[in-house]
Design brief:
single chain, mainly alpha, two-stranded antiparallel sheet
Length: about 250
Amino acid sequence: MPNCCVAVCENYNQKTKGSNVIYHSFPKHPTLRSKWIHACKREDKVNVENATVCSAHFLKDDYERNLKAEILNIPSRRRLKPDAVPSLNLAPVRSSDVPCTSEIVEQMHDRTIRYTQRENRKRALNRLSHLSPKKNKIDIGTETEPISEPSLEVKLAKKLDLANAKIDHLKREIFTLKRKNKLLHLALTEKNQKLKLLESKKHEEVNEKINNILKKIFTKTQIDCLITQKNEATLDKRRYSKSTDPAFFV
């Protein structure tokens, strides 16, 4: 008897019988499976081979759309998307937990970029401070004047900041374009499926209209021959009664 293994959920098969609650087995992919285990917030070990998570913990967008069932207005089996993760009605988030959402992933990405920028700047300034005296001086005739270290450090820091900002901007553009490309690909797939469904439905309607017109004159066997376009030799072998011969109605 399946029951939901989410820590705060009390749903089980007998309790939810007759409702629209269904139970999903854990995915096979190790990374996705670990996300499901993390979302359950269980203190004990989860037996992923037999454990299930009920549909009360998934968003509507986590399920694949069945266009055929929607058009024909018939019930269909709900299937989760390959990357779906439980995100509703979960246990309170602990301070040590990191929720797997796109916003958090983006924040972590921004933190990583800022940390990299700071480290690059530190390395540049540290390398500059350890330059030999000969490299820190410029010969002008017989005299040597030291380079103004603060002004040089500021210039290098500004250049480094501009370069890091440009890299950050380009990474964000790539991330946005990838998301747009994925959405467009999904929309195109959905439109193609809908088009195939409409073409199939139109073909069935045309056949039905043809049958309604021909059945006033021909028998079912004759209609099948006309629609399937059998050769004349086959048609000549068939015997037409006087009541079914098309010439009889002329």
